[in-house]
Amino acid sequence: MKINNPKTKVLILWGIVIFCFLIFWITHSYISDYQNFIEPRNYLVRAEYYLNNGDEYKALQELEMGIDTFRPVNSETLALLMKIKKGKTNKNILDNLEKKHQMAVILENCNYSDRLQFDTKMLNTGEITFPALSKTTKTSVASLWRLLTRSPLQCMQKITLSEQQILNFLYYSGGVFSFNSTVGNTGITIDDDIFVVSEGKEKVSGAQIWFQGRNYGGHRRGFYVLILTPPPCKVYRSDRFDIWDSYDEAVKMYRFLEEIPEGYVGIFAVADEASENMTEELERMLLTFGFAKKTYVKRERKIFGYGYAFAGVGVKRAIEGTAVQNWAEYNPSQNKIPLAICGVMKGEGKQ
C-alpha cells in the first residue's frame, strides 16, 4: 500500500526512530546491568543473588574469591559467609570466622570512634598458634603495636594486649603470616622473625619492617625495601623510593632490584603511595620476587593500586605467587587508612 500523506510518512518515520531508540536503550541497560553484575568487586552482590536463588555453592565461590582478592574483608562479607557455613562445618571454623567478623566490625568502628571497648579474652586462643616469641621479637611486636595505635588503630590506644594477643589481633584483622621460618612457598627459610606493616594513602601513613629488633621502615612517603642475604640472613641493602614523586624513582628502584642476586630475600612496604609512577618494568621486577597480581584495579589484575597499602616478603627468582604478600585498598570516600600486615615467623625451637 502506497502512502501519499506527508504527515503519515513523518509519523511512521518518527515511530521507527523511537522504536530503534527503545531497542537501543533496553539493550544498553541490559548490557550495563550485566557488566555491573560481573564486575569483580561486586562479588557480594553475586553471592547474595546466587544464595537467594538457592545456589549456595556458587555463593560460597563468590565470597571466597572476594575475600582472596579484595582487602580488607568487610563485616558484611564475613556475616554472609557465616550464614552459608552455619551447620555445615565444625564449631572451631565457625568460632574463628566469628572472630574475624568481630575484628572487621572493630576496624570499621575505628573510623568513627577514638576509643573502643571489647573483650580481649577472645584473643587468648586462635585458629593458629604463633610460635614462642624470643625477647627481641616481643620487643619488636610491642613497638610495632605502639606505632600502629598512633594512627590507623588509634582507637586501640587504651587497650592493653600481650604480644601473643597482638599477633592474634593482627591475624584476625587480615594479617598474612608464614610459619616454620619459610618464606611462603618459596622453599627459602629465614632464621629470625620478620614483620611488615604498610599504611596506605593518608597524611600520617608510614611503613614498618622489623628484623632483628630494628625497624627499617619510616614515615616518609614511598616504597621501603630491605634485602637480606640467604640464610644465615644478614642485612644486605636497604633503601626507600618515592615512586609517587617521579618516574626516575621507579627507574632507580628497578635498577636496585635488578642488581639483587638470586636467592636473596626482599622485604617490601609502602608508606602513603607508591603506584603513581609505577612502570611495567618495575612491576615485572616485583613479580620476580615471587609476588603475583592478586587484586583488581579497574578490572585489570595488579599487585596493588593507587593509595593501596602493600606489604610483602619474597625471594629473588622465586616462582610467581609463592611469596608472602598482603594489600589493602584505598577508598578516598572513607575515613580510614589502608592497612596491610604480613610476617614470617620462626618455627618452634629456633630461639
Topology:
Elements: H1 6-38, H2 43-52, H3 56-69, H4 75-85, H5 91-110, H6 135-148, H7 163-172, E1 176-178, E2 194-199, E3 207-211, E4 214-215, E5 222-228, E6 235-241, H8 247-258, E7 265-271, H9 280-287, E8 295-297, E9 300-302, E10 309-315, E11 324-328, E12 339-344
Parallel strand pairs: 1-12
Antiparallel strand pairs: 2-3, 2-12, 3-4, 5-6, 5-7, 7-10, 8-9, 10-11
Walkthrough of the structure:
- The chain has nine helices and twelve strands.
- By secondary structure, the protein is α+β, with helices and mostly antiparallel strands.
- The chain folds into two domains: 36-110; 120-344, no CATH class.
- The protein has a five-stranded mixed sheet with strand order 1-12-2-3-4, with helices on one face. It has a five-stranded antiparallel sheet with strand order 6-5-7-10-11, with helices on one face.
- The protein starts with 5 loop residues before the first helix and ends in a 7-residue tail after the last strand.
- The model has no long low-confidence stretch (mean pLDDT 90).
What attributes does this structure have?
351 residues; 2 domains; five-stranded mixed beta sheet; alpha+beta
What does the largest sheet look like?
5 strands, mixed
Number-wise, the strands total: 12
Note the total helix count. 9
The geometry reads as globular
What is the residue-mean pLDDT, rounded to a whole number?
90
Radius of gyration: 25 Å
Helical amount among residues, as a percent range? Answer: 25-40%
The strands making up the biggest β-sheet line up spatially as 1-12-2-3-4
- Uncertain segments are none
| Class by SSE composition | alpha+beta
